[in-house]
Amino acid sequence: MSSRASACALWSLAIAACGDTGGRDAPQTGSGVGSLSSAGSDGGADAASGQASDDGPGSGGLVLDVGAATQASAEEGGGGEGCHKVDFLFVIDNSSSMGDEQDALITSFPGFMLTIQNTLTDAQDYHVMVVDTDALWGGECELLCNFFGGVCPDNPAYPCGQGPPSPCDATLGAGVTYPLGGDATNMQCNFSSGLRFMDITEPDLPAAFQCAAKVGSDGDSDEKAASSMVSALSEELSQPGACNEGFIRDDAILVITMITDEEDKGSTGTPEGWYANVIASKKGDANAVVMLGLINDRDQPAPVCPAESEDAVKLRTLVEMFPNHIRGSVCEISFNGFFEEAVALIDQTCDEFTPAG
Hints:
- The structure is a single chain.
- The chain has a single domain, classed as von Willebrand factor, type A domain (Rossmann fold), CATH 3.40.50.
- It is α/β, with parallel strands linked by helices.
- Helix 5 crosses helix 12 (336-351), helix 8 (225-232) runs parallel beside helix 10 (271-281) and helix 10 (271-281) packs parallel to helix 11 (313-321).
- The protein has twelve helices and eight strands.
């Protein structure tokens, strides 16, 4: 955990401490992180009706620059009632190559949320939940405990013979409250909400996010980013008494940030099916969702990610299905510029939002 990330623990120091990480502050089109929002995708018949299926949208539509779209929205005014609540879901890859990317996200988070707070002046009710990309807790420790005298050599803090604190800690898509493993926080986050997500009662949101978002690097190498996202928003995990009870709200817009450096090789289903399930969680309203994809950029003319990285075809397809989306390179040194552009798209989405019912 870097000293810069620790310095981000106070809102009042968010800009001074986190505003400049020494990296590029804005995405560069030539580096594969040009930020785009697409318009015109209807989400398919099943998604539009709020029914999850494996059949997704058609071929999409016109691709617009976020800045131009936001300027037009500001001039014309929002077409909906406007949002008063925002649910933020962060899907964070916890495989072995993701340590630096997790640190970059943690460093960018305070400035991102402060800008959200100052921009969405009528939407000050937030939920923030972190999920990782597997169902393991403590990596392979439960197996290793049996071979090393009841101690996990990779993480001596692992409670051999006891397992996770609760079934939710070993459930794919459940909100992270106790990251355990190599490079993880290795502590209970103790959110003030008493739930598996943070809300507006959190006295130190950046510190709470840092605790949860440092999910570590002992996760399964067959990352299940899409399955984790779908599971996090599912009725099964959202119903009363379930792991993520209360997180997703019908009268809030949903902002998903997916951060992973590889293709999704472990999730079941297809991008069309993943998309349809997300839209179903918002009662069929595709315009109530903002998808922020910090993923591999190997398809770009001048990629930042290393040559050995696998092109994330399925995840790229998924991100670009959403009418409101921005895609950036997970391999950039700083995510500050990416999140600055994301705020403009979130603000536009909020202005045009009409709650279901």
